[in-house]
Amino acid sequence: MRKLMASKGHARRSAQVSALALIVAAVAASASNAVAATPVGALTWTAQLPIPTARGGLASAPLDGNIYVVGGVTSYEASTLNTLEAYDPRTKHWSTLAPMLTSSGFLGAASLDGQIYAIGGEDNADNNLATVESYSPASGRWSTDAPLLAATAGDGAVAGAGHIYAVGGWDEAGDAVRSLEIYDPTTNRWVWGRSMPTASQLPGVAWSGNRLYAIGGLDNNNEALSNVEAYDPATNTWQERAPMPTPRAHPAVATLNNGQIIVAGGGPPSGTAAVELYTPSSNKWQELTSLPVRADPTGALVGHMFYVISGFALGQSVTRSVWAAVVR
Questions:
Q1: Homologous superfamily of domain range 2-326
Q2: Which residues of the chain carry a pLDDT beneath 50?
């Protein structure tokens, strides 16, 4: 992404929005045609208590019935955040918790073994971070863990089979990467996995059926991607799957209890409200009821409720909105 910049610093984020906003209208129009023959799944979206801090470039992970939202930026010109906020769906209450040790935007997040992990991202000077930190809800404290092997921003992260997987993003030169790093919390060590076939910035990620799914993102020309690629850790191999009907980056993604993967919204800003469901067993996509807003949010599943949280909406503005729908 840095190659779009005439100069370094926060101007990179503003130029990214201007360059990418033109993509969205075209992909939204083509996506509607791509799924026209697909039955529409009805969802009822309901507004939830807004998040205290509106932000984009954020990440989230569910743990023990709560949703933890980490980092981000309040605008493309603003400083990165070290904010940690948690939502309890049972009480419908947000809590502000201990801040991260390192401010970070456009980072990945995952939960594993009772910890929330904040992975990579970029700092206030738009420098990529290799930083990895974990938060213990039990102690209310953050700890520093082994850093990524390569400083990466715009990565997607997910936990599965006792490990954390960090995939895609952009490197220090601002170029989209194909890299996959795998973290073992028992050894506090990252190792390289096989690179994915397609370089992708800000991919959506999910874990289903003992496989990692990298979904969409932006390519090296900042074109929105529809690619879906599945990684099998048992064989260290990738497989291309049916493309997503609506190309997008930084969507809200979650794996349902039956193994299906739901993808909602996505950027660049002023992007899409499309919601689509992927079934790995049949390798097919289905259109669901669109979000009430267009945004590139974060998302998490708690029980049968899928939450879509904050993000950039309508140009460079950020939203505090939180929407939820029952998905089964």
A1: Kelch-type beta propeller (2.120.10.80)
A2: 1-40
